[in-house]
Amino acid sequence: MTTTQRYTDYDTWAWLYNETMGPDYGKAQLTLLERVLLPELPTNAAILDLCCGTGQLMQPLLDAGYQVTGLDGSAAMLDYARQNAPQGHYLLEDARTFHLPSQFDAAFSTSASLNHIMALTDLVQVFRNVYQALQPGGLFIFDLNHPEQMQKWWCGKIVEGEITPGYAWRLTPEYQPEVSEGAFHVEIFQAQPLASWIARFTQPFKQTLYRLLSLRRLTRFRLRLLSRFEKVEPTWTRSHLTYRVKGHALPEVQTALQTVGFTHIVIQTIDGDPTLDANHSAHFICHKGSG
User: Which residue ranges form the domains of the chain, and what is each CATH number?
Assistant: First the structure.
């Protein structure tokens, strides 16, 4: 798949990500940055948000006085990022091929964006590009879903999804341990004009049900309904997007970081626990030497 095709696919997903997963994932990731990154930075530090997506993390950092640049390969993702954080700077670039001078005090990449880099050689190149963009003493923080975690949780079942009056979506991840590769499937349903009087009559009752199912304590029932949503709402249009990911072995990732020059590499959970298990993604904290 060419870069153009790859990022066209991400363009298709941008509106949904901006409405749903982007804001939700951003809350936990901002807490991580406030704990491990921001206390280490000078006032008005320059920060690179690598694979920034729709930019939900950028505005809080801009509000705190930092200079933030968002880099992403999807033009549609960046369009939403500009709306969400108008004062940011933006670069439409591929993480594998961008080249910037040593100008940033820190860089981060969140929400397992780097799992979309399928080859270890390409991941090394990403690390090299980030290393070059950092000033001496700069920090690089990113997270990855790792093989043990993916093998436990990415088992072909719906794990997330929502139902709104105008659209619904469901996300189904799968993982093949024999090749350390997986994919997540995003299916989107969009409402159409109601053609029959029966549909118009029943729709208010359905919408009341959908609002109730948005409650967190009813997640299990919402996912069950989403698993057969095409039968519940047969007139809604349905589209299917698939995104491939790689389960990079953590020792290989650490070696790749060391190869390009990063030091003092710490791996922990999002809560700071140095013991990783199948229930948590891996968060890397890396330093560029000051010499």
Answer: 3-145+248-288 (3.40.50.150), 150-245 (no CATH)
